[in-house]
Write a structure and sequence with these properties.
Elements lengths: L14 E6 L12 H13 L2 E6 L2 E3 L3 E2 L2 H14 L6 E4 L2 E3 L2 H8 L11 E5 L9 H10 L3 E5 L15 H5 L3 E5 H4 L5 H13 L2 E5 L8 H33 L6
Parallel strand pairs: 1-2, 2-5, 3-6, 6-7, 7-8, 8-9, 9-10
Antiparallel strand pairs: 3-4
């Protein structure tokens, strides 16, 4: 599996954003380089020292590869300076059969050295066999990181249908804007419940444009009220760094 390497520790703000769409023009995220720079610097002001760009990989929509990501990544890095967040890359992989074949062939774009990968499902339903696929990913040395579990409709009335995914090895990555209510009442309440139940193991911006920054900031404040300062550091710094390093001692 492909991956971008590890984040640098010294001299960086503590927070790590594992899920962000700030590479211009390659998915439904920012359209221009200027927007990407504005979003990166806005996240830096909120305390993020490392931001992982995760462009969509979805059959028939955004068929991004390491080669297609490279120029956009280089352009954004070139427009930033040493005081701005470090930009790494992975991908948000829509786990359909074609992307699953990519995984089996070793072509899934993952975090770090490929020991973890961000995946998403259709919002309406968790696919049959998802838990088994997560088990297989773990067996083959890749920890699945589930994007926005709070936004899947099957999770809104309780965790019974998604908790088996955590048993299968998934790390639940909750969107900060969900906690701010950007996506409505049900995702917000579900995000709060996942934090309360200890199923949410990390938080992220999932920002697609600079206007999302206000939702990210509001979500951070809501999370701080729910889990405290130490809990926020765990969810935005400690656990995300373990994902990038492929250690998983606490997630």
């Amino acid at each position: 599996m492909n991956g971008p390497g590890q984040a640098r520790e010294p001299g960086r703000a503590p927070y790590v954003d594992l899920h962000c769409h700030l590479l211009p023009g390659i998915d439904d995220g920012v359209s221009t380089l200027e927007e990407g720079v504005e979003l990166a610097r806005g996240l830096g002001r909120l305390g993020f020292g490392t931001v992982v760009a995760t462009p969509h990989v979805r059959s028939g929509y955004w068929e991004n590869t390491v080669e297609s990501i490279g120029p956009a990544l280089a352009a954004l890095r070139g427009a930033l300076d040493g005081d701005d967040p470090e930009i790494l890359f992975a991908a948000e992989n829509f786990l359909d059969d074609r992307v699953w074949d990519l995984f089996k062939q070793g072509g899934l774009i993952g975090y770090g050295e490929g020991r973890a990968a961000l995946v998403e499902f259709p919002p309406q339903a968790i696919p049959i066999g998802a838990r088994d696929r997560f088990f297989e990913m773990r067996i083959k040395g890749c920890r699945p990181v589930l994007a926005h579990p709070e936004r899947y409709a099957e999770a809104w009335k309780g965790s019974e249908k998604i908790e088996p995914l955590a048993d299968g090895g998934a790390i639940f990555l909750v969107d900060l804007p969900s906690l701010a209510g950007k996506f409505g009442r049900s995702p917000r309440r579900t995000a709060e419940r996942l934090l309360d139940e200890g199923l949410a193991r990390a938080l992220c911006s999932d920002a697609h444009r600079p206007s999302d920054l206000r939702h990210v900031e509001d979500g951070m404040e809501r999370a701080r009220r729910l889990v405290g300062d130490e809990g926020l550091v765990e969810l935005l710094a400690s656990n995300p760094r373990e994902v990038l390093a492929g250690r998983f001692e606490h997630v």
